[in-house]
Every structure is written in structure tokens, then in C-alpha cells.
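Our preliminary data section would be incomplete without showing what the modeling component actually yields. Below, a chain of 275 amino acids is followed by its predicted structure, encoded as C-alpha cells that our downstream tools consume directly.
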Amino acid sequence: MKFSTCNEMFEGWNWGDVCEVVSRLGYDGVEVAPFTFCEDVRELTTADRRRIQDQARAEGLEVCGLHWLLVKPEGMALLSLDSSVRTTTRDYLLSLVDMCADIGGKVLTLGSPNQRSIPQGMLREDGLGLLVESLRVIGDQAAERCVTFCLEPLPASMTNIMNTAEDTLEIVRQVNHPAVGMMLDVKSMCSEGRRPEEIIRSMSGRFSHFHANDANMRAPGTGDVDFVPIMEALIASEYSDHVSVEVFDYSPDPVTIAEQSIRYMKACLELARSS
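Predicted structure:
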């Protein structure tokens, strides 16, 4: 199991400085929100992409992948009533697949609740069909670039599609593509009415990435969620990839959040291993 943290909480920081701090705190990797580099990733040159990877590697870090995929450019909607918007959004996701591979990443996480929702006026069945169709195209590109495109379950308060791990797994099954999978997020699992560790065990072998946070939208260890059972479930599931800290409240500051998070998660992992 490896630990990483998402870079968007380091608002306004130079990428090299982010990598230095994250490495010094003991993380194995960093997860990238593309909008922190530019409005449109197609603006990033080959040299830009190499620099992102090289600066991470210089600090002994992996770039584990991308998330917050459709924050920018504005106007993206994977299931828009307008077919041209759907095509533009799908094509931008193909560009993100390329960026992920170019900077050494292995997974992309599709959260983007507003940009993936089924719009009013579209039948749910039609929306699901369009989603599956687009994901198969994206999956082909992901397979070619040796990355996995992961769907993220998000609560119904945020989006009207893929609200639970089971919902999301069903979409993955319908897509039926080796490069399209799913991930799990602690905050989102807390909205399902089941304990996160139960969901993790039920999804054993089916998820390719993991976000660590609390139901309070802050860092692991800051709320009521006990991460020892979560670590036990990850161990039982033989999960060996990144556990990535993703928070939505950046107080008091990113360094404190990152430092406290990894200390807490490593302590929980040790307790889980000894139980």
C-alpha cells in the first residue's frame, strides 16, 4: 500500500515545492488536479509534461494519476442534450488520458458530479446508454496509453448517476472494458448507509484507486471515521495501490493537513497489521 496526496490543496504553490514537501513528509506519490496547471491541458507542451514528471521523480515521488478532471475548461458535460458538447467533453477526456500517461500517471478518476449528471429532459436509460458508449471510446484510449479510467461513486446530493459503489460497479460491468474501472472514496462511502469497511470488502478486487478523507470533508483523523477498520479491509482486499488524501477544507494549511494525514494513516495501518 502506498500513500499519496492531492495537489489542489496547495493553492498557488510551485509544483516543485509541492513535490519537495510531499516527499519530505513521507508520501510515495502525488495526485494531480489538471486545472492547477492550466485552463486546458492541451496547452501543455511535451516539455511541460516531462517537467511535471521529472520534478516528481527528482523527489522520489510517483504521479499516481489525475482527478477533478472536468473543472476546466468550463462548459463540459458528458451527457449534455447537445451532441456537440458531449463530443467535446469526451474528446477532452481523451486528452486527459494522454496527459495522465505523459506525466507517468496510472489512473484517472471521474468525479465531476455536475459534468456527468443526466440532464433534465433526458431519459435515464438514454443517459446511461450514452455514458457507456463514451466510456468504451475512452477505454480504448486508456488501454493504448496503459492507464485505467476510474469511475467514482458520489452521493445523490451531488449527482444523479453512479451514487453508490454497487451503482458504479454495474456501469463498469456494462462498459465491459479492461481499462475502465472504479475507485472508492471514504467521504462518499459514508453517505451509503453502510460502514466504509463493509463496502471495501464487498468491492474487493474491483477498485483501482482510493481516496482518504472524512465524512466532514476534511482530512483522515479529523472526524468520526475510524481508519483502522478501513485499513484492515484494504489489507484483506489485498489492495496495494495508492491511498490518496483528498480534502475539501484546506484549513489550517496544506502542510499541516498533509503531515497529520500521513501520520494518522500510517498509525492506523500499523494497528491494522497487528490486529
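Residues 78 and 86 are 5 Å apart (CA to CA). The longest strand covers residues 180-185. Preliminary results of this kind motivate Aim 1 of the renewal.
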